[in-house]
């Protein structure tokens, strides 16, 4: 689990094609202190598994599902990414609950600079707008933010100078894409309210197998 508090702005060192997907190498500094093979790390909001570590970089594999649901496939060598290591049980909870499971990609429609701050307008697939509420939490490229305003399927967020200086949101502009993860609490509530077991498509063979294991039914 993550909190959406970016720890480091790092650079893509290399991108190598694989049979089904690609392999990223990312040059980093701060997060290298305690990362190891098998660790989870958020890269632009996508939870990935570290498969190799060196002194100044680490590697991970991106499968087709990841490339289809996120903007990681658009990136090039030299591009910057937001990094956050998985949260420890003893850490402060600085942002909100973030799984690193990107649902969709949004697009920056406008970036209005106001002195050292900015207002970002982001267009999102209407399917995911039911999980967005004014003053609610949302993750953009792995950054925990508060929704300031909603207009149809457009949200606005305010970016403070620290966010602009220390995340990819300071580098991005109009027409750039963002990985979107909506608030997990809203998704659970939506599922609880809409779920109807009687209307779900049930695979009876699986049901029989489960009951046979549990109760010895044939």
Shape, please? globular
Output the radius of gyration: 20 Å
Question: What is the level 1 CATH name of the largest domain?
Answer: Mainly Beta
Q: How many individual helices?
A: 4
Helix share bin = 10-25%
> In terms of per-residue confidence, which ranges show pLDDT below 50 for 5 or more consecutive residues?
none
Q: How would you portray this structure in words?
A:
This protein is of the alpha+beta class and 218 residues long. It has two domains: 8-85, Elongation Factor Tu (Ef-tu), domain 3, CATH 2.40.30; 104-194, Elongation Factor Tu (Ef-tu), domain 3, CATH 2.40.30.20. The chain contains four helices and twelve strands, in the order βββββαββββββαβαα. The protein has helices at 64-69, 161-166, 184-194, 204-215, and strands at 8-18, 21-27, 40-43, 46-53, 57-62, 80-85, 104-114, 117-123, 137-140, 143-151, 154-159, 177-182. The strands form two sheets. It has a six-stranded antiparallel β-barrel. It has a six-stranded antiparallel beta barrel with strand order 7-8-11-10-9-12. The protein is globular and about 65 Å long.
